[in-house]
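mind reviewing these tokens:
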Amino acid sequence: MTAQHWGRYVVTSVDGRIVSVEPVAGDPEPSSIGYGMVGALEGDVRITRPMVREGWLERGPGPAGGGRGSEPFVEVSWDRALDLVADQLRRVHAESGGAAVYGGSYGWGSAGRFHHPQSQLHRFLAMAGGYTDSVGSYSVAAMEAILPHVIGGAPMSIWSRGPLWSAIAADGELVVCFGGLARKNADINPGGVGRHESAVWQRRCRAAGVRFVNVSPLADDVDPDLNPEWVAIRPGTDAALMLALSCEIVRLGLHDRDFLERWCTGADVLIDHLLGRSDGILRDADWASSICDVEAHTIRSLARRIATCRTVVNASWSIQRQRHGEQTYWAAVALAAVSGSLGRPGGGLAAGLGITQIGVHGMREPIAAFATPGNPVEEQVPVARIADALLHPGTTYDFNGRRRTYPHLRLVYWAGGNPFHHHQDLNRLVRAWQQPETVVVHDSFWNPLCKHADIVLPVATSLERDDLAIGIMDPVLTASPRAVEPPDGVRTDYAVLSGLAARLGFEEAFTEGRDAEAWVRELYERTRTSLRRSAEIELPSFDAFWEMGEIVLPTPPRPVELSFEGLRSGLPLDTPSGRIELFSETIASFGYDDCPGHPTWLEPEEWLGAAGPASGALHLLSNQPRTRLHSQYDHGSHSRGAKVQQREPVRIHPDDAAQRGIADGDVVLLHNDRGRCLAGAVLDDRLRRGVIVLSTGAWYDAERPGGLEVHGNPNVLTADIGSSKLAQGPTSGNTLVWMERFAGRPPVRAFSPPSIRPHAT
């Protein structure tokens, strides 16, 4: 059995080759992503020897001047590769200190508790003298910044504070899904999925009489089995709709006055804003109708239903990845508070209900992880601002109430993740990526990150090493033994970093005298001891666990502290007022013009409402793919099987396609002033006109650095600007493009290795 972020599978191998992958028995809704692992560990795309970019090897470290992503690589020995990396770390630390080393990396590299590349790298770099880290996430950066100010708690604590599906089935009546409730988003979970039960619970809710409303430009953003009502909103206008719904509830006199007065602060400021008392603008259904392109009577009807039903206001992660994305989540809190359902069984506020395991289980018992010591460097860069940092070192910027300065990053060390997938405006990132003196990457395959590196160290996949895994809010602890051995010449991240630690003089501190297998055992035994003491849970021995394959841990009771139910009982929240902050003195004191002190609608620079139909612009949605996790295993059979003429499919409404002379299966060109890419057209009437969908994760494949991208990566088109000064999150949700039929057929080289020179002595 293997544990992956997309679920657990039984792997069959013959003569060291994986021949089949099947979901474990008892998984009611297994993800098909796992099928793409068959055959994916082999072929030219696999890296089996350390590689160094030829220009870096010949000229030494320094800005690449366009060489990264275009120059060939030279195979070197492991000893030489590790010597080169150790020398550069030693030099940069001595000359500029740890702040000059960027170790942001990113998660998702492995579901395992031990072989988690980002954790391994951060432990190593902290011991090596420190590094500049990233802060926030591409997934929910705006949410992470705004909610601690508004409802208190840790940035992602809302995931364990929202209603569970079981409570909704028992007491709920209505789930309003802003940004949809796409079934595919429950396929994955950081750390793994014991059993895919989210869709099962959704159907149970529907059978119990719960109604679903899909507020999204995509009709299939909620499972058709739930018979959802579709509100085909104009993309990027959710905050305006939420404010109008709140306004209509107040005008009807159906708002929860007692809750607003007793357990919220700033409700009077919010209501004055909604009713136009502060600025003369009544934010009612008529006002929102022209912004959201939704009929006013539809808004009024939905407002009445929200106020008279036990309602869950569910804000998907996608609706905050846009300019002023903080406002969508703040407005969602306000709507839930106004509605009367917040803090009541089966209702209230949810952030990403239906994504990962949110809503299926509450919090689980804590499990030991590979410890990371304190980082002696204080510098952090918002994760979505890395291109800014590389292009403009020394520049000051605002972030969550503080004035910061971008450090001068001379060495980038990356293990886990692929910025050439998840970052915006990839042409700008290509330029920024030329600036450091050295870029070191751990990976298994020749993805675009490796092709834009200086030193590439080949590492084992999660199918080629022993580990144990457990997902966020998932109680199933899984043994994940290696299915096959890694190819000759390939090492684990741990072995690579241990070798570097030996060269830099802290191997004993890094390894604590343990090999990888001993560490997996140590993490289990530490967990065993901890659970015995804290929860009186007795786990079997490690050997017994390894033989059993899984342990389903008891789910602890949901904590009342910081819950909205507890707030109704008089328990304060972790906010300055102890209440929900519908107006925040703290945020208002920052003086940000793009994030005022209460939720509001702020018009983005780029959206269909400003472009007008005569422009011919289409709104690009770059959602998560169905056939892979982000860009992982894009080279696998499952993802490649969904391509159209070898390119990522782009969904377009048949009427929009006919207007542009595009037929199903055509190769099409998408372009704006940031970039150009090709994709394969798929005609689909399950989306509103004026909207197209090109999922993320196609491996970036430009004819030349910054040139035409031929494989269908939407992030050559998205803008690299922050959501606001508060969060500095990504803003892919505000992207206008133009689309036309493309006559040529440039070759796709995404899954071909770069040019490789003979072994260097």
Summary: Residues 516-535 form the longest helix (20 residues). The two ends are 41 Å apart (CA to CA).
